[in-house]
């Protein structure tokens, strides 16, 4: 896995093609569920790409990956800086990433988007806010404990005991 992380990090930093850099940023977000144990080794490279890379596609992939990795530290603050970006796709990616991170400090900046003009931003916001309702405490997030829907695998929702998908917000206590 160290080889995959190192290779993707190098591609993100040095590939001349935007598509390759964007795919490398996305690939760093795919590593944890695909190559256990989970790693956040790519987080510094993803954060750096938000500052050093000029292309919005790389920023989009980096934002999504930071959310997938549930990056901590100052990553939520860095991601939140995209909530006012002129590119609505980047705003949507930032909203989704902050919802995935479940950082309680992100709730205030997210709530400022309730009246956003862009309907897709508001849709992403509704989904993101639903991820904060965990067990009566803000910031609990869906991925805050083992066995919750987030641990069921990337892109898959947990199964309800009767066979259907678990309703959104289940596993975290509350919606």
From TrEMBL:
<dbReference type="InterPro" id="IPR011989">
    <property type="entry name" value="ARM-like"/>
</dbReference>
<dbReference type="InterPro" id="IPR016024">
    <property type="entry name" value="ARM-type_fold"/>
</dbReference>
<feature type="compositionally biased region" description="Gly residues">
    <location>
        <begin position="133"/>
        <end position="147"/>
    </location>
</feature>
<protein>
    <recommendedName>
        <fullName>HEAT repeat domain-containing protein</fullName>
    </recommendedName>
</protein>
<feature type="region of interest" description="Disordered">
    <location>
        <begin position="133"/>
        <end position="175"/>
    </location>
</feature>
<dbReference type="Pfam" id="PF13646">
    <property type="entry name" value="HEAT_2"/>
</dbReference>
């Amino acid at each position: 896995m160290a080889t995959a992380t190192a290779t993707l990090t190098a591609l993100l930093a040095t590939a001349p093609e935007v598509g390759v850099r964007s795919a490398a940023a996305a690939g760093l977000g795919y590593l944890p569920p695909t190559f256990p144990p989970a790693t956040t080794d790519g987080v510094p490279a993803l954060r750096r790409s938000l500052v050093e890379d000029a292309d919005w596609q790389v920023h989009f992939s980096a934002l999504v990956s930071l959310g997938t990795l549930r990056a901590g530290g100052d990553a939520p603050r860095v991601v939140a800086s995209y909530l006012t970006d002129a590119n609505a796709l980047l705003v949507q990616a930032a909203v989704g990433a902050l919802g995935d991170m479940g950082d309680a400090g992100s709730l205030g900046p997210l709530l400022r988007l309730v009246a956003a003009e862009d309907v897709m931003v508001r849709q992403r916001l509704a989904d993101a806010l639903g991820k904060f309702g965990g067990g009566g405490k803000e910031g609990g997030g869906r991925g805050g404990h083992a066995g919750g829907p987030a641990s069921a695998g990337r892109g898959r929702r947990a199964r309800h005991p009767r066979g259907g998908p678990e309703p959104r917000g289940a596993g975290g206590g509350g919606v």
